[in-house]
């Protein structure tokens, strides 16, 4: 019934096309209760800590794989090869744990207090609502061809609109899969369930751009972003290595536009994956994750 269901920072994007349902929030609440049962495994407050532990494990495993691959390249041997296969299995297991924790955290919040959530349809002029959620690893939207998770991508331009978005198979970057499958993004297919009280989602996209472009707002945002350079973002994982991405800045002049300046990159030295931060909602969501408040505070 739920075609797409992805979460993190307490939000869900749900595809409920052509289904006459009760409120999406009730639908998700019911879905989560059926999935996890009434007794949560973890205490709510301990989940963020567990997520940090699991993403730390993912990084350690990835480092070990890189080491082993180096050694194998120097002199191919079955011992390294076996170890690499085993580490890859371990990593996949940890990633499943990570996904379950993210779903559980969002699920607990929505079942405990549905009134703190509301739902939005994707309407022209409200692109900020979608942009706010880009980069989150998809939970449940799988490639029809190879079953790898798909992730929502957009073209490289500042302040993209709905037509610039598409679903991309994460198998594209994995040498053994190399799946080139993409799907168009259809805004009308998607209902976004999100926490209320996010100021960047409560105004229209053009109004947000106007306010956030004010030079004193931009300067403050830039200063705050700069203070996080090099920090890991445990909500945004590299789709290839499944490790938390970290904040990077492009080299360039001091007056480089803020929307050209920042992106998230993968820590693996052989990886070119990035998550773009080319709109104000994306910067706001980043600051919200790291500091607990966005641009419009
Ligand atoms: Zn695929
Ligand atoms: Zn990577």
Structural class: alpha+beta
Which small-molecule species are bound to the chains here? zinc ion
Major beta sheet summary: 4 strands, antiparallel
Give the CA-CA distance, first to last residue: 37 Å
Shape: globular
* Helix fraction by DSSP (H/I, runs of at least 4): 40-55%
- Please tell me the total number of domains: 1
Question: How many individual β-strands?
Answer: 11
- With strands numbered from the N-terminus, the spatial order across the biggest sheet is 1-2-7-3
Mean pLDDT: 83
Order of helices and strands: EEHHHEHEEEEHHHEEHEEH
Note poorly predicted spans. Answer: 16-21
> What Rg is obtained from the alpha carbons, in whole angstroms?
20 Å
Strand % is 15-25%
Supply the number of helical segments.
9
What does the model show?
The protein is an alpha+beta fold and 297 residues long. It has one domain. The strands form three sheets. Strands 1-2-7-3 form a four-stranded antiparallel sheet, with helices on one face. It has a four-stranded antiparallel sheet with strand order 8-9-10-11. A three-stranded antiparallel sheet has the order 4-5-6, with no helix packed on it. Strand 8 and strand 9 form a beta hairpin. The longest helix is centred in the first third of the chain and has 35 residues. The two termini are 37 Å apart. About 2% of the residues have low confidence. One zinc ion binds next to loops. The site of one zinc ion has 8 residues, from loops.
């Amino acid at each position: 019934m739920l075609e797409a269901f992805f979460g993190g920072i307490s939000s869900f994007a749900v595809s409920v096309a052509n289904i006459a349902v009760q409120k999406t929030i009730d639908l998700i609440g019911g879905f989560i209760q059926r999935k996890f049962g009434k007794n949560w495994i973890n205490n709510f407050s301990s989940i963020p800590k567990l997520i940090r532990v699991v993403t730390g494990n993912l990084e350690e495993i990835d480092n070990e794989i890189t080491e082993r691959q180096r050694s194998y390249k120097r002199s191919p041997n079955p011992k390294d090869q076996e170890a690499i296969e085993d580490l890859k299995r371990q990593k996949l297991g940890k990633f499943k744990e990570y996904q379950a924790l993210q779903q559980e955290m969002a699920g607990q919040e929505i079942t405990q207090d549905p009134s703190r959530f509301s739902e939005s349809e994707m309407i022209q002029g409200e692109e900020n609502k979608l942009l706010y959620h880009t980069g989150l690893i998809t939970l449940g939207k799988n490639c029809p061809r190879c079953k790898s998770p798909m992730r929502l991508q957009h073209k490289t331009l500042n302040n993209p609109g709905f037509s610039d978005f598409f679903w991309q198979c994460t198998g594209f970057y994995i040498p053994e899969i190399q799946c080139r499958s993409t799907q168009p993004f259809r805004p009308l297919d998607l209902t976004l369930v999100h926490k209320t009280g996010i100021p960047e989602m409560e105004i229209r996209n053009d109004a947000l751009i106007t306010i956030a472009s004010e030079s004193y707002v931009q300067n403050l945002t830039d200063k705050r972003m700069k203070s996080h350079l090099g920090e890991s973002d445990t909500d945004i994982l590299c789709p290839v290595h499944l490790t938390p991405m970290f904040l990077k800045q492009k080299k360039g002049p001091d007056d480089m536009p803020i929307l050209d300046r920042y992106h998230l990159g993968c820590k693996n030295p052989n990886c070119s994956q990035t998550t773009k931060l080319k709109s104000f909602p994306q910067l706001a969501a980043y600051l919200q994750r790291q500091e607990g408040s966005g641009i419009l505070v």
